[in-house]
Amino acid sequence: MDVTRRHLLLQGLAAGAVLALPHRALAVAPAGATKVALVIGNGRYKDGPLRNPANDARAIGAALAPLGFAVTVKTDVGRAEMTAAVQAHVAELARGKAVGVFYYAGHGVQLAWRNYMLPVDATIEAVGDIPTQGVEVAGLLDGLGRAANALNVIILDACRDNPFGSLAGLDQRGLSQMDAPRNTLLAYATSPGNVASDGAGANGLYTEHLLREIPAKDAKVEDVFKRVRLGVRRQSNGAQVPWESTSLEEDFYFVPPARAVEPSEAERERRFADELALWETAQGAGDPAPLEAYLRRHPSGRFAELAQLQLDRLLALRGERKMPIASAEGNPFTRGSAAANTAWRVGDSYTYRVMDRLAGAEERPAAFTVIEVTEHEVRFGNGMAMDLLGNTLRRPGGRVYTPNQLEPVEYAVGKRWRTEFRINTPKGAEGTTTMDLRIAARESVTVPAGTFNAFRIEARGVFSDQVHRHAEETLMKKWSAPDRLRLPVALDEIRQRGGRNGRTTLSRRWELVAYHEA
Known about the structure:
By secondary structure, the protein is α+β, with helices and mostly antiparallel strands. The protein has helices at 3-15, 53-64, 79-96, 130-133, 137-147, 205-213, 221-235, 265-285, 288-297, 304-317, and strands spanning 27-28, 35-41, 69-75, 99-105, 108-111, 114-117, 135-136, 151-157, 184-188, 243-246, 250-251, 337-339, 349-356, 361-362, 366-373, 377-380, 385-387, 392-394, 400-401, 410-412, 416-424, 430-447, 450-465, 470-480, 490-497, 503-516.
């Protein structure tokens, strides 16, 4: 890079040194908010009847009613009645700005990336009949968007293998991937492009587990669905893995907690130590059961991403064939999803340009070359060590990190998680970092190494220096393209002392210049 261009680049970076602040921790939906549920179960189809959807709908309605929901249950309905029920549900949410739950069990199909719920009177003789005889999920979502109500939970147990699979032009299974609209959690009984079990008992497999988790006390709605996902996956041996997309801006509980009391510093330390000990025991056990126990107890825990990765590995070794999410390439209704790339190889190398935006100067390039890969670690020639997700464990110079999850195991816009970890130096100094992270967008980003379709991760947290007794707010934006790279494409990091209007102590940008993955 010539000197003039480099000087102008660094001037621009320094001028924009203060990043737009990422999200803060979510508020809690008001406990007294009106709650409305529409529950539909269709099973009496002429072609491909289903045994359990009506049972499922009645059971879900019975589970929600004692929790303060005004519940409408519809079973085995035709298109006119189903459409009218959806319209009435949307209108009621709009009037009261209520919390809404929509549940559907029955046949569902996708066509041209669009998802349709099928009424019992649908007669599908050609693919052209689907839009006119089905009820499109997008119509429900559009109505909820206009209602502008508090928040919505949409549950689609509609991924049974459709009875029209022999129709020409209908060659996709299950439902198509969709991103949740604003302030909505969208839950599928199984991952996009796959099919769900109707169940051998009184309820479908997915609804059986949902009924078990809805009454759980003090469980955030996202944790409810994480536990459901784990239970269904294990019972089906990976043949059915539920899937969610979320854009919730508030925490919602089916059973709200009692008024929260802010824990003392000593209590926070105790909780962290207890959870870390539970995680370290699970990680070292070499058996899925302790990992499952950790994830059931801490579905959104400080080590949940790490536990999920380890569970995936152990179950695969035991013969689980986890159903993959169907490709969303070309799908206009989603920005897609991706799994972390953990296939590290000796010889993988990455070189970054590092810019100090406070000094307006470019630092020495940072180069990382893999020299060893173990069961749990990736070791680099410069002394750096990471876990398989790319989370730092040791740095050159001797700093050691407790297990952390700045990198997730799965990527999808709207995903949220938290990490907390300790940093120890060779001289015995200690620091603590706590961060809330979310995947805010998927966007094109260009760096010297090329242009990447990357997930943008935004994070906000606090770094506490235990030696000098001060705390700094930590802000981060990171762009990752796990379908192409095992390390990030770019990273912005800032530390500020003294609050939002305080002093910036660090402002640095990393950009990938070159890479090779063996």
